[in-house]
Amino acid sequence: MRIGIDIDDTICCTSEIVKDRLEKYAIKEHMDPLDIMNNEELKSAFFSIYLEDIYSNVEIKKNASEVLKRLKSKGNEIYLITARSNYFVKTVKNNFEIIERWMKEHNIEIDGIVASAYGEEKADVCKRYNIDLMIDDDPYNYQKIISSGIKCVLFDDKEKYELKDNYVSNWLELEKYIERNR
Ligand SMILES: [Mg+2]
User: Fold this and answer.
1) Which of 15, 42, 44 is closest to 29 using CA atoms?
2) Which end of the chain, N or C, is more open, meaning fewer C-beta atoms within 10 Å of its C-beta?
3) Dist. CA 173 → ligand 1 center (Å)
4) How far is the CA of 174 from the centre of ligand 1 (A)?
5) Do 33 and 66 share a domain, yes or no?
6) Which domain holds residue 128?
7) Domains held by the chain: number
8) Inter-axis angle of helices 139-147 and 120-128, to 10 degrees?
9) What are the pLDDT digits (tens) for 66-122?
């Protein structure tokens, strides 16, 4: 099976580290974190400073490493399909290197990385790569991928969304879902 997996908030705890760094930055700058996030210029200034740190030091989700290893050892192909882009901030132009280094640190072997893919573009990438099943935490991506005829599971470990059909709340559940739908 060719499995496509989103990175941020699916494999790793991106929201948590963003929140942590944003709070530190806000204190330093004597600003409110919400005001920073609601202003494109301030937000971009924050990410220009912290994005490399965020991508390099983000924590992996519980059981993700073990499950990915087992999926690989059973012959599945794993493709990371992410919206991370080299054009998001001027300071981070080496997204592939950062992702590869991070995967290595967590002993995860993958078959490919596709960046700058969001929404319809993500659905197109899934088609081009003949992905059998995509896993993503973003309901917008989920809808786009499903409507293009590709199977998708919504990864929702914070019970944020109403969707209760193709949804899993952790990596062990995801592993069982893949076993059932292979
Ligand atoms: Mg995501």
Assistant:
1) 42
2) C
3) 18
4) 15
5) no
6) 2-12+61-180
7) 2
8) 50
9) 999 999 999 999 999 999 998 888 888 899 999 999 999 999 999 999 998 999 999
